[in-house]
Amino acid sequence: MPHFDTAGGLGRHIPAEDHTPEQSRSWQLSKELVAEVTAADVIVLGMPLYNYGAPSSVKAWVDHLIAPGHAFEPMTATLCSATASS
Q: Which of 28, 84, 81 shows the shortest CA–CA distance to 54?
């Protein structure tokens, strides 16, 4: 998952008709990801935790999902966590 750079981040706050090619690509990816999540019945994330935080690729995915004008209704969430025992 590509992380936001200056072009992608700024492109979210200006009209689409004023986008550079880089901003258009980033915005299109965000729209595609929002559509995938909106269409899903269930989303399961399996990931390691580094210092009690999600990997940066997961954070980048969430950054793309928070797209102005493409938000979706909040859904019910169930959080399950598993840890190794000794």
A: 81
User: Does the pLDDT value for residue 85 go beyond 80?
Assistant: no
Inter-residue contact 30 to 61 (CB < 8 Å)? no
* Helix 21-39, helix 56-65: angle, nearest 10: 90
Each residue of 27-74: pLDDT tens digit?
Answer: 898 889 888 988 888 888 888 888 888 899 988 888 888 877 766 555
Tokens of 82: 């598993």
Both ends of the chain: CA-CA distance in Å?
34
pTM of the complete model: 0.73
C-beta separation of 1 from 60 below 8 A: yes
Closest CA to 65 of 40, 41, 30, 38: 30
CA angle at residue 56 from 24 to 77, to 5 degrees?
90
